[in-house]
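Re-run with default settings, no changes from the original entry. Doing this only to confirm the output is reproducible before filing.
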Amino acid sequence: MANDNLFNAKRAKNDEFYTQYHDIEKEINAYLEFNPKVFTNKIILLPCDDPEWSNFTKYFAQNFEKLGLKKLISTSYAPDSKVVQMLAQPTLFELDDPKYDKTKSKSNGKIFTLYRDKSGDQKINVDDLEWEYLEGDGDFRSLEIMKLRDEADCIITNPPFSLFREFLSWIDPSKKQFVIIGNMNAITYKEVFPLIKENRIWVGATNFNTGMYFKVPNDFVYADTYKFEREIHGAKVNRVPGVCWFTNLDHGRRHQPLPLMPMIDNLTYSKHKEIKGKSTYTKYDNYDAIDVPFADAIPSDFNGVMGVPISFLNKYSPEQFEILGATQRGCHDEVPDIKKYDEYWEVKPNGEPTGSSGGKTNENANLAGNDGRKNYFINKEGHVIQSAYQRIFIRHRKNKS
């Protein structure tokens, strides 16, 4: 039980990520450039953690009129309901308001709304935010917040990474527009990838290979391997690699064709030494597809199926490519695996068996051979294979038969 509490405490602290204003502005601008009226007359719900500190609330409140919003709703989660009971100091706006209630300040969430010129200065902005205590703790799964979800046209926030699957399901992309942040690994979740394959959701405009800095609590615990900035403009921050914006709002980058790799004198012309000068791409041992290890090395004249890294989605244009499936997700009916490895066993680079069966690599994208750097799999006949990193299977749309 003690270990469980420690794990939950650490996970909760590492869910306390606050998105920086300029990152929100950059991402939202991409949707506005594609469609300047994308938020016009919309009700925006921000089910974030602390609206009084949230840059999501600040951005949309300050740009209320510019975006043409109908209404802005932002909700918070009660301090007493968090897994980690951190010191919760009421903000000045709360203490100075007759509505302030010492008990509710800890046990109840808050709701902030913006829809009218409350101050009388002939404009609607952050100064016109109105707030009340929620009846409950503000959990997005509560009936109270679900009613706000049903009222909203678009949901925008940075949900806890540990609850991403549940939060996306709660939104229901078929019913609501949304822009949310998650780890790039969420691309491969069984709840997420089919939606990407069907072009019902996609990644946002910000390149997720660059990582993002988030403001974190003062008692945030850094990993021992952390080597990046710990403070920006006086605020404690944590860099999270591979962070994605997920959305079903369109943006221009989705429709920019990816430059393809030409063959010159029947050889690949690439900056990557792994494939530069080769006359062909390597075929998988267990899929009728070739391995393209870099998104910028997709051949222009190959008519078959290609396995590409998940970073490809940063460059994916639905007009240029068709997504067929992914390894290890049971959703590659159009690219079935043609071989199993149950009779193989896993071996370390030094030749020492790990004790694991080769069955663990079934449905991975496997390549014949051993690069000497990673674990590999071998059978009694001496056939050796290694797993590539997770792959998405694609095909040129122009070549679809």
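Confidence is low (pLDDT under 50) at residues 1-13. The chain has two domains: 2-253, 256-401.
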